[in-house]
């Protein structure tokens, strides 16, 4: 699977919540595992692990019934939630590009038969996946319920670069991201939340930022640009919290 194929599916992907419960064949699962081993990481210094489970290993009243789930575990280091979003979104796009359904599950936790930690790593998030029993793709941009570009960025002249970022999925479609600076150095921040919303979405919205960075990386590459991510602190627009700086240069 090329990065160009991952990029293309950004414009059609959607969450799939209804699945054919027949498990996928071993070959498809092996191909997925190979892809997972090669994903790009935002921070090479954060060790992570994946675990693929079957439907009966995962329980939650919120969980979507699917034949398979991928649980993501990570070392709890600075930036680990953004890194998780960045990595798992590549898998979400891979599944969609392979005509497989997938859905992020922030509300689900593996049940007791699946450890909350593995080798000292913390359980972070999960994706449900399998053969879809509903359409796996959108057929047009108008089917995305998303904020407009003017609502999520102050950068002028970067419409093509940021359109795929605008389409990124986020927990409960909160789209809490904001992009300022300029097209060479983008400051990525997220809306500050009140106490109640922070409890509901705080952690998820940081994972969302990683998802947006994944789309930004693929978009930049499509435009012949290399990106460098800087997660160390910096200033953010009023009402926002700084998340990352993304520097772009010609390849
Ligand atoms: C971090 C994260 C957690 C999510 N958790 C859930 C969940 O627990 N249950 C669910 O049905 N959808 C969940 N979603 C899916 C979002 O609701 C969905 O991505 C968003 O509404 C946009 O719709 P789309 O993915 O179809 O474009 C989650 C998405 C993200 C990115």
Automatic annotation (TrEMBL):
<keyword id="KW-0285">Flavoprotein</keyword>
<keyword id="KW-0560">Oxidoreductase</keyword>
<dbReference type="InterPro" id="IPR029478">
    <property type="entry name" value="TM1586_NiRdase"/>
</dbReference>
<dbReference type="Pfam" id="PF14512">
    <property type="entry name" value="TM1586_NiRdase"/>
</dbReference>
<protein>
    <recommendedName>
        <fullName>Putative nitroreductase TM1586 domain-containing protein</fullName>
    </recommendedName>
</protein>
<feature type="domain" description="Putative nitroreductase TM1586">
    <location>
        <begin position="5"/>
        <end position="220"/>
    </location>
</feature>
<dbReference type="InterPro" id="IPR000415">
    <property type="entry name" value="Nitroreductase-like"/>
</dbReference>
<comment type="similarity">
    <text>Belongs to the nitroreductase family.</text>
</comment>
<keyword id="KW-0288">FMN</keyword>
<dbReference type="GO" id="GO:0016491">
    <property type="term" value="F:oxidoreductase activity"/>
</dbReference>
């Amino acid at each position: 699977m090329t990065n160009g194929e991952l990029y293309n599916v950004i414009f059609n992907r959607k969450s799939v919540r209804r699945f054919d419960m027949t498990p996928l064949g071993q070959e498809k699962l092996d191909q997925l595992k190979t892809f997972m081993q090669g994903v790009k990481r935002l921070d090479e210094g954060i060790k992570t692990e994946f675990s693929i489970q079957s439907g009966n290993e995962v329980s939650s009243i919120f969980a979507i019934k699917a034949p398979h789930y991928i649980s993501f575990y990570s070392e709890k280091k600075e930036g680990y939630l953004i890194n998780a979003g960045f990595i798992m979104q590549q898998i979400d796009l891979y599944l969609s590009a392979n005509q497989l359904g997938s859905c992020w599950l922030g509300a689900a936790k593996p049940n007791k038969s699946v450890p909350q930690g593995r080798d000292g790593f913390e359980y972070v998030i999960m994706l449900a996946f399998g053969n879809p029993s509903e359409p796996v793709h959108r057929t047009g941009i108008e089917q995305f319920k998303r904020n407009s570009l003017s609502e999520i960025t102050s950068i002028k002249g970067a419409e093509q670069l940021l359109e795929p970022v605008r389409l990124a999925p986020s927990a409960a479609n909160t789209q809490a991201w904001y992009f300022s600076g300029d097209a060479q150095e983008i400051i990525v921040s997220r809306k500050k939340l009140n106490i109640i919303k922070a409890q509901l979405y705080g952690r998820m919205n940081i994972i969302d930022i990683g998802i947006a960075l994944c789309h930004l990386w693929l978009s930049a590459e499509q435009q012949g640009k290399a990106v460098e991510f800087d997660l160390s602190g910096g200033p953010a627009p009023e009402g926002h919290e700084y998340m990352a700086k993304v520097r772009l240069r010609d390849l």
